[in-house]
């Protein structure tokens, strides 16, 4: 059966047994029971009720994004504002960025597609509506029609929507009525002067508004909608597009404003800007930030509203784990050919049980690895960045040449944490490596000290070493964070002996072009 | 007195259909069209034609 095949495939190379035969999670090093340290209780700083809502949502929990998949259905093409970073005339299956889709769907088509994907991908936990326009424009008609049917047909899937916030106050009651627990608002400014440089116009109360008036109305609606949602206990994620020279420093103000209104998570994303996309910013030479510029703003916001750093800026019809897009497997033609599809959540339930067991004890084992580093080297060595080739499960389980992105971890005496990802073109296609692609990979992870892989060939290995980035395959199939801490301990010793050099001050390039690599 | 949609520039997003106070806009063979018999250019209803005000491609124009 196809769903069993795909369930097995994510466990990878036999390192994990299927759920039914999986042994209990090993006792954590610190000896505490899984009931107090396990994933079922979530992180110490999170309300258990909130953890219950986010633990399986890949966009709301960094940890969940290693295990769970999301799917966007493109039922909402209409929009009520114009943004300078968006041009919805462009429709290309080789591109991955918000607002881009290949096929618009009716609510009926969307339900059929969701049921088909749910049968094939047991990691699926969330259905989101993120456009390609605004999910609440045109009165949110298609959005709510889709969720109404979905709630009845597949009640185990979480519902989620994304909006610019302009029409949000009018729809908060409906959102609550359909048990939509997660709402994302894109908020790029809290000052209309800044907003006027991002939004040329909005359509509100039967009128097109421009300039400061437009930005002021949008800002007021966004803040009102945010307050209305959080007062009802609905989790709100705020997305902000970082636009160098326009709102980069201003995002600290945005972070404070949304935190004070109860936003759960703040996601600062780099502007994707390219003349070929036909956007106003793209055509007028507005650049996006570098990897380090983005990280500086994100780091400056730490301590305010909790930061999300694992966003992949998905297409409005993305399907799969956050780092992948399996949309091409589920085009309208292919779904039509599948015939009638019944709802069956057995594979998803057994996958969720498996993940629950896998995650139990992980928090304690990470803490033990961190304590080991702190005891042996103290706080004398600055943290480093490590690029990781992974296909999920918090493990180093992807070959260097097959990686379409690298996850970036910052590791130091304070622990190992996920701080971002870098998209790359797949280096190895059809068995041979491509030198141009390798240069792109080197530029994308140039600020990293090491790259962790399951396997790597001799040629790319040498190029990486020549560029000062150490290729590391000795942690193949192990957990990322524990391996990163073990590596850091070793690195600190070698640094003390003068055997390695620090890569502080290096920057990296955020890749924004079309994805040309095919799925492995 | 009516508006029309320049189909070559239309993105088929449907924003106009939702705003039209006269239900004059519908999807025909994959593209939105305005029924000139129903279109009033929103005179007496709104400050400006709603389809043109909301259209992201600026393709709703006087016929």
UniProtKB/TrEMBL annotation, chain A:
Xref: InterPro entries: Aldolase_TIM (IPR013785), Di-Nase_FeMo-co_biosynth (IPR003731), DiNase_FeMo-co_biosyn_sf (IPR036105), MoaA_NifB_PqqE_Fe-S-bd_CS (IPR000385), Nase_CF_NifB (IPR005980), NifB_C (IPR034165), rSAM (IPR007197), rSAM_sf (IPR058240)
Keyword RNA-binding included in the entry's annotation: no
Cofactor: [4Fe-4S] cluster
Pathway this chain belongs to: Cofactor biosynthesis; Fe-Mo cofactor biosynthesis
Presence of the UniProt keyword Lyase in the record: yes
Pfam families, sorted: Nitro_FeMo-Co (PF02579), Radical_SAM (PF04055)
Domain of life: Bacteria
Keyword list, A-Z: 4Fe-4S, Iron, Iron-sulfur, Lyase, Metal-binding, Nitrogen fixation, S-adenosyl-L-methionine
Domain Radical SAM core per the UniProt entry, residue ranges: 65-317
GO molecular function list: 4 iron, 4 sulfur cluster binding; lyase activity; metal ion binding
CDD domains on file: NifB (cd00852), Radical_SAM (cd01335)
Chain's role: Involved in the biosynthesis of the iron-molybdenum cofactor (FeMo-co or M-cluster) found in the dinitrogenase enzyme of the nitrogenase complex in nitrogen-fixing microorganisms. NifB catalyzes the crucial step of radical SAM-dependent carbide insertion that occurs concomitant with the insertion of a 9th sulfur and the rearrangement/coupling of two [4Fe-4S] clusters into a [8Fe-9S-C] cluster, the precursor to the M-cluster.
Family as reported in the entry's similarity comment: Belongs to the radical SAM superfamily. NifB family.
Name of the protein: FeMo cofactor biosynthesis protein NifB
Taxonomic path: Bacteria, Pseudomonadati, Pseudomonadota, Alphaproteobacteria, Rhodospirillales
UniProtKB/TrEMBL annotation, chain B:
Residues in 4Fe-4S ferredoxin-type domain copies: 1-30
Keywords attached to this entry: 4Fe-4S, Electron transport, Iron, Iron-sulfur, Metal-binding, Transport
Cofactor: [4Fe-4S] cluster
InterPro entries, alphabetized: 4Fe4S_Fe-S-bd, 4Fe4S_Fe_S_CS
Keyword Acyltransferase included in the entry's annotation: no
Pfam families hit by this protein: Fer4_7
Superkingdom in the source lineage: Bacteria
PROSITE patterns per UniProt: 4FE4S_FER_1, 4FE4S_FER_2
GO MF annotations in UniProt: 4 iron, 4 sulfur cluster binding; metal ion binding
Name this polypeptide is given: 4Fe-4S binding protein
The species this protein was found in: Azospirillum oryzae
